[in-house]
């Protein structure tokens, strides 16, 4: 998977009383970027529910490196680190306009079969969504 980029302007609902991104909002913005990665590649919300197979986060290691403030423009980068068997790792970073990495998160994830209620090997559709082909 090549590195995907998603641009965001930090809005009022993203910040806390200190005027910087609320800690929980980091996860929301990272998730938004992941949806914007897989949806155009044919694996959006409706397809997930039609196929009854969707991504699940198993673990996250989130680092807050630099403050991101109200109305700053950031780019969220997403890159597949590895995918072995049923479990993959994806690195996402929030990058400021000057190129400084303000946050990074390493997500451990898998593809979940909603009928069998278990992790499964990546399907061809899921591989396409992650640009693994």
How do you describe this structure in short?
With about 130 residues, this protein is an alpha+beta fold.
Write the layout of secondary structure elements.
Elements: E1 4-9, H1 23-38, H2 45-51, E2 53-64, E3 73-84, E4 87-96, E5 101-113, E6 118-120, H3 124-129
Task: Note down, in words, how this protein is organized.
The chain is an alpha+beta fold and 133 residues long. It has one domain: Roll (Thiol Ester Dehydrase, Chain A), CATH 3.10.129.10. Helices cover 22% and strands 42% of the residues. The protein is built from 3 helices and 6 strands. Strands 1, 2, 3, 4, 5 and 6 form a 6-stranded antiparallel beta sheet that branches. The termini are close together.
């Amino acid at each position: 998977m090549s590195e995907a980029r998603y641009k965001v302007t930090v809005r009022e609902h993203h910040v806390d009383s200190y005027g910087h991104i609320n800690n929980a909002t980091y996860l929301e913005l990272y998730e938004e970027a992941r949806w914007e990665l897989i949806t155009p590649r044919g694996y959006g919300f409706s397809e997930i529910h039609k196929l009854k197979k969707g991504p699940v986060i198993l673990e996250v290691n989130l680092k807050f490196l630099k403050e991101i403030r109200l109305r700053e423009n950031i780019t969220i980068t997403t890159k597949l680190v590895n995918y072995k068997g049923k479990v993959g790792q994806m690195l996402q970073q929030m990058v400021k306009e000057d190129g400084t990495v303000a946050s990074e998160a390493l997500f451990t994830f898998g593809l979940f079969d909603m009928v069998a209620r278990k992790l499964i090997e990546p399907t061809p559709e899921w591989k396409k969504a992650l640009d693994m082909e």
